[in-house]
Amino acid sequence: xxxxxxxxxxxxxxxxxxxxxxxxxxxxxxxxxxxxxxxxxxxxxxxxxxxxxxxxxxxxxxxxxxxxxxxxxxxxxxxxxxxxxxxxxxxxxxxxxxxxxxxxxxxxxxxxxxxxxxxxxxxxxxxxxxxxxxxxxxxxxxxxxxxxxxxxxxxxxxxxxxxxxxxxxxxxxxxxxxxxxxxxxxxxxxxxxxxxxxxxxxxxxxxxxxxxxxxxxxxxxxxxxxxxxxxxxxxxxxxxxxxxxxxxxxxxxxxxxxxxxxxxxxxxxxxxxxxxxxxxxxxxxxxxxxxxxxxxxxxxxxxxxxxxxxxxxxxxxxxxxxx
Length: 323
What we know:
The protein is an alpha/beta fold. Helix content is about 45%, strand content about 25%. The chain has helices spanning about 15-25, 45-70, 110-125, 150-160, 175-185, 210-220, 230-235, 245-255, 265-280, 295-320, and strands at about 1-5, 70-85, 85-95, 105, 110, 130-135, 140-150, 190-200, 220-230, 260-265, 285-295. The chain has a six-stranded mixed β-sheet with strand order 7-6-3-8-9-10, sandwiched between helices. The chain has a three-stranded antiparallel β-sheet with strand order 1-2-11. A two-stranded antiparallel ribbon has the order 4-5. The longest helix is centred in the last third of the chain and has 25 residues, at about 295-320.
């Protein structure tokens, strides 16, 4: 057992002094009787013994209360938490075009959303010491997961995402950047990063992407951009140019913030891109230890109250037996 405020236990050293002072001030017994007749019916309890018992209960209750003030507790577990000092927000496009199946994995067509989700999971799993958050955007942008070191929680949130979670008729890249930026702006970190993954150009929202990038630049936040989509397959499918990312704008966003812009025409290239980002943004982890405690002060308080109630009940019993 340990104590949250062990110095308060020094108060226990004062108790013998207080008891001695109380004994000197009071030379009278705990109970006074005007006649020996009052002793009738109390053959088993002497007045001095009764007074000593009641005083002992009172002093013991005080000991328990002082111990409770010192916050006694039991250690349940000790955890080590590593934090790199890098905060990352992944901004993922959830517009309808992300359903386009222009990626190939093991000979099977797979949608842009599915491949992005898979690679993003591996990226999160490969950075256990970073705080990572998740923002999604289409016609609007919202926070899917706050910045956290609990990556199991983050991955569960990522698994729950699907196209249509928000209005998927448009792509608000600028709003997505600002939503991610608002998660990072007040944090004191060694490095702040946004990884933006999109397959289209900005055609919705209140904020222009380059305006949002200027804000990121002012706050020292890097924006790595990843353009999704295979131009050759899009043409073969007869899809309009809107089904491809605006790589020129994505390049400007990254250049403004001192990061890199990537194009991912296939699954292999997308995996390589995230490995590259992983290498570029590395720092030593700082280890913090956290201990979980089971607090015991309530038991000491309860025990002290029981002793006080016992003292009151015993004193009342003695007085009721007096003639």
